[in-house]
Structure formats: C-alpha cells, structure tokens
Amino acid sequence: QVQLMESGGGLVQAGGSLRLSCAASGILFSISNMDWYRQAPGKQRELVAGIDRGYSTNYANSVKGRFTISRDNARNTVYLQMNSLTPEDTAVYYCNLQNAREYWGKGTLVTVSS
C-alpha cells in the first residue's frame, strides 16, 4: 500500500521559513517523479514545485527564488524548503507522487501571519 506522509507545516510569521517533508512508503521512490501542490482557501489546487527522478526541478513563478525542492532517495523523502514566506503562501500543501499511477498525501497546513 502506497503512503505519502507530509510533515513540517505550521504557523510562521511573514518573512520566515519552513521546511516541509514528504515520506513515501510502499513504492519504488527513486523512479518516481515528485511534486508539491498547494490549495489556499477558496482557490484551486496549484502546482508549487516538482522534481523528477533525474533531479530536474521546476517551480511556479510565484515561488521561484524563495522555495527549493529536493529529494533524498535513501530516505524515500522529498522536501520543500520555503523561505521569505508571505501570507499569500498560506495553504494546505500536498505531496504528489507519479509512478505508474498517481498518489497524494493528506496535506499539511502552512499558515503565514502578517
């Protein structure tokens, strides 16, 4: 059974940093592409950042230069380092894995206060 477990969310002041983690189990992580999505209240879920199995990365324009996605295949974990956070970054952040199928975590809430 494939499981994705996000952690690291919380409340932070504007300008602060958080690091999200997503640990995968039950699947061959190293050949999977990994994404972070987020969904703010009243808005659609949007892609924040992605990293493929070759370690190529991509970012939404809104987070370029502030967020960094990385992966540790030995730990079956993908990370999202978030710096210079703003209230507009407030959302539930979801981990997404693409292999033969697509899987989602349950999300972790990030709240940025002004």
Kindly describe this structure.
The protein has 114 residues and is mainly beta. The chain contains no helices and eleven strands. The strands form two sheets. Strands 2, 4, 5, 6, 9, 10 and 11 form a seven-stranded mixed sheet that branches. Strands 1-3-8-7 form a four-stranded antiparallel sheet, with no helix packed on it. A hairpin with a 5-residue loop joins β5 and β6. The model has no long low-confidence stretch (mean pLDDT 96).
Secondary-structure blueprint of this entry?
Elements: E1 3-7, E2 10-13, E3 18-25, E4 33-39, E5 46-51, E6 57-59, E7 67-72, E8 77-82, E9 91-98, E10 102-104, E11 108-113
Parallel strand pairs: 2-11
Antiparallel strand pairs: 1-3, 3-8, 4-5, 4-9, 5-6, 7-8, 9-10, 9-11
